[in-house]
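Incident log, support desk, overnight shift.

02:14 A customer reports that sequence design results differ from what the structure should imply. Their input is reproduced verbatim below. On-call engineer (initials T.W.) acknowledged and began investigating.
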């Protein structure tokens, strides 16, 4: 396949990713050494890459030691199971944002395991260098939820029915949509011309109505029930 026509887009994405991930503390763990090298190179120097590994044990030790904000891990590693590692670390450190790179879209059991284990983002490895991976990094590092397009049907499987305890208002849906897109309360306030305190009040009502244990869980429920649209980042398309 001739990728020459899209090299300029690859380079633009790499440049933009450095700005998006400025000062983000992250650990990388990928079984593909070439991809690991490229991803570390894209993230540097604006992000703080605390470690780059190919084995689960090494990544676990780094997360426990460094407490990064973001873990980018692939399902296939040189040693260990990437999905089980991601799920285990997420269970021990709920505040850790986890972006999982999947080797193929047909591993349905593995995908469901990752979703049920509260991974914040799932992206196909084939999206590397494309807008999907960049969008995922942006959304997940900001605390939102991102699932690659080919995987979204699995994300919603079994949740076609159900919904909130009470209907959400139009404003509450706007707030929830921006939460799913990884926006902080101050950013949501600027986008909707509200104070951060007002945003906090709206979000509190959203958590009660769904009900949800926190903002990330609220975003997951909103997306699964189709209350809000999937996060899309214009410059990453």
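02:41 Re-run completed on a clean worker. Output:
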């Amino acid at each position: 396949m001739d990728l020459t026509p899209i090299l300029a887009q690859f380079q633009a994405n790499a440049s933009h990713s450095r700005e998006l991930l400025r000062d983000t503390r992250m650990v990388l763990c990928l079984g593909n050494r070439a991809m690991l090298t490229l991803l570390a190179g894209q993230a540097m120097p604006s992000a703080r890459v605390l470690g780059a590994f190919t084995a689960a044990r090494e990544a676990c030790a780094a997360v426990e030691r460094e407490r990064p904000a973001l873990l980018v891990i692939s399902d296939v590693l040189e040693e260990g199971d990437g999905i089980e590692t991601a799920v285990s670390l997420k269970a021990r450190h709920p505040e850790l944002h986890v972006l999982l790179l999947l080797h193929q879209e047909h591993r349905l059991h593995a995908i469901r395991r990752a979703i049920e284990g509260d991974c914040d983002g799932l992206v196909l490895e084939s999206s590397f260098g494309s807008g999907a991976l960049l969008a995922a990094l942006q959304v997940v590092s900001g605390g939102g939820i991102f699932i690659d397009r080919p995987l979204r049907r699995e994300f919603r499987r079994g949740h076609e029915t159900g919904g909130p305890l009470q209907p959400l208002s139009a404003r509450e849906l706007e707030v929830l949509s921006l939460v799913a897109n990884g926006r902080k309360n101050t950013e949501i306030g600027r986008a909707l011309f509200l104070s951060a305190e007002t945003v906090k009040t709206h979000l509190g009502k959203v958590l009660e109505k769904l009900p949800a244990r926190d903002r990330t869980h609220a975003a997951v429920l909103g997306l699964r029930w189709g209350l809000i649209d999937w996060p899309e980042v214009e410059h990453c398309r």
